Amino acid sequence: MRLITRFWTRLRHYRVQLGLAFRVTIAALLALAIAQHLNLRLPLWAVMTAIVVTQVSVGRSLKAMINYLSGTLGGAVYATTVAVLVPHSNEIMLLVVLAIALAPLALVAATNPSLNVAPITAAIVILVPAVTHASSVASAFDRVLEVALGGVIGCVVSFFIFPVNAHRLVVEAAARTLNQMARAFGELLQGLKQGLDIDSLHRIQDHIGQALAEMETIGKEAERERSARLIMEPATRPLLSALLRLRHDLVMIGRVTLVPLPKPFLIRLQSPLHQIEVAVPNYLRRSGAALLAHRKAPFLDDVELALAAYAAEVTALRSDGFTRTLPDDDAERFFALGFAFEQMHQNFKELGDCVTECAESPKPIGRIVAD
Questions:
Q1: What percent of the chain is helix, strand and coil (3-state, nearest 5)?
Q2: What is the rounded CA–CA span in Å between residue 291 and residue 103?
Q3: CA 257, 261, 181 angle in degrees (round to 5)?
Q4: Closest by Cα among 20, 273, 358 to 164
Q5: Which of 139, 284, 285, 368 has minimal Cβ neighbours within 10 Å of its Cβ?
Q6: How many Å apart are CA 151 and CA 61, to the nearest integer?
């Protein structure tokens, strides 16, 4: 029984990847079957396009289809024009025509990667007639039809078969990032006591940066779905902005932790720092869990109590004259820490608004779900 439970848990963990594998297979088979039924000249391109267009989320599939069709149509029109205007009845002229067709399109693809299929299309339009004995115009028409068929099939399959909402992927990425921030905050607070080496600090910040970059990429797909009115979820940009601000807070705290706080300060601040070390990661994790569960943001009470205790002890330290004995560098780091805590408090409120907005939003339209 335990093995079965573990198997299903593992299976659920990879549900997005398994769903993609199933969609790609179905899209390829459908493309081949329909292309053969329509007697298309090269069913291979319909199949390849269906595979390329079928992506993890519907938003990404839409983008892939638009890019692939745009590149194909542009490449086909340009190559056909060149083939018609420049006679190429021998091998030398065929090389010349191919060069004229490919060079500008290769430059376009180099400057705009979304059109990287254009030179491939041009080569097919120029060279296939030599094998099939069809005209360049017919070759271009076949190519566009094959790609259009594969693109439509890829999008339809992405929409109806185990569809994945990109907004849900953003939420899952945000939850993972919040958990990373929670772990990072605990490591940084430890650095206040013993100092943190620069390599460890870079490792912590780089992992968070990579997670945010991934989230931003998926967020663009979610916005594409919103533009197409496939979902009614709120915009993802505010959530990403809130996490970016929290990352800046962690960067600021990280700079402080390269050198431990003076021992007298650590002794006085031990209790409030411990409260912060517990309350802040807990709030970050609970916010991630609330996002995943479509619940309102957790209360900030524990964080506010911990920060209030820290602020009160800092005020006491200043009243007792402790801060006047600090060297300039230490004093600057000490006050920067308090400022970072206060900024984090404000950014937690923004994060809470985003979490609550996600909880109050309607479910996605149609069958685009991620459960």
A1: 80, 0, 20
A2: 49
A3: 30
A4: 20
A5: 285
A6: 9
**Which of the 8 DSSP states describes residue 117?**
T
Q: Decide: pTM greater than 0.90.
A: no
pLDDT at 124 over 90: no
Percent of the chain with pLDDT over 90: 22
Give just the sign of the alpha carbon dihedral 296, 302, 308, 313.
Answer: negative
Examine the fold and report which residue of 111, 126, 160 is the final residue of a domain before the chain moves on.
Answer: 160
Burial group, residue 104, by CB count within 10 angstroms (0-12, 13-18, 19+): middle
Short-list 282, 276, 311, 312, CA closest to 299: 282
Record the tokens describing residue 167, joined without a space.
């907004």
- Counting the structural domains of the chain, the total is 2
If we measure between CA atoms, which residue out of 271, 269, 277 comes closest to residue 320?
269
The size of the chain, in residues, is 371
Do 152 and 206 reside in the same domain of the chain?
A: no
Across residues 291-319, what is the average pLDDT?
89
* Total Cβ atoms within 10 A of residue 20: 18
Amino acid in the structure at residue 224 = R
Tens digits of per-residue pLDDT, 179-215? 999 999 988 888 877 777 788 888 888 888 888 888 8
State residue 9's pLDDT score: 63
In a domain, 365, yes or no: no
User: In the block, which residue shows the tokens 């194909």?
Assistant: 72
Q: Which of 215, 266, 250, 274 is nearest to 344 (CA)?
A: 250
Rg value, the chain, Cα: 28
Range with the largest mean pLDDT of 8-17, 54-63, 211-220, 227-236: 211-220
Let me know whether 200 and 132 are in one domain. no
Q: Are 347 and 243 in contact (CB under 8 A)?
A: no
Residues 279 and 227 both lie in one domain: yes
Judgement on whether residues 191 and 116 belong to the same structural domain of the protein: no
- Which domain, by its residues, includes 70? 2-160
Regarding whether 202 and 346 lie in a shared domain, the answer is: yes
Q: How many CB atoms lie within 10 A of CB 218?
A: 24
